[in-house]
Amino acid sequence: MRISKYIIVALSLVCSQALAEETVPTLAVELNAEVKTESGCLLSFLVGNDHEQDIEAAVFETVLFDKSGQVDRLTLFDFGALPAGRPRVRQFQVDGLACENLGQILINGASSCKIAGADSPLCGASLKLSTRTETELAG
To answer: 133 φ, ψ to 5°?
Structure first.
């Protein structure tokens, strides 16, 4: 009987810790698509703000690497307003970039993040990155 009580207590602790980890709000950024265009590559991102607050403005410093791992360019992607609990798609045309040569996109950090009219560290502190393409999304 003692052993089963200890097992129940241990399982309860593990389950409550797992639930606590799942409820941490994130800013989910997914590289959803890359489309070759006449002038370069159109990158589409799906963004979900799981925080309670609306993000009024989010700009990320972004580094694009080619397939050999060399930096192609450093740029700013302005994701604009990201309302809480509502997904948004943001697209960025990168002129002079061949989609097939893109190896990795690195979100280097938030260049700007505004919540309720003030600067906030929220955009860079809670990023959850993923990709549906062959290009790695890192941060």
So the answer is: -115, 180
Instruction: Return d(Cα 14, Cα 36) in angstroms, integer.
Output: 47
Instruction: Select from 1.10.287, 2.60.290, 2.30.30, 2.60.40 the CATH code of 25-138.
Output: 2.60.40
Distance CA 80, CA 59 (A): 7
- Token pair, residue 95, equals 């002129």
Rounded Cα–Cα distance for residues 103 and 131 (Å): 12
Sketch the domain layout of the chain as residue ranges. 25-138
Q: Return the bridge partners of 59, or none.
A: 78, 112
The reported pLDDT for the residue numbered 20 is 47
Range 105-130 average pLDDT: 92
CB 130 within 8 A of CB 30: yes
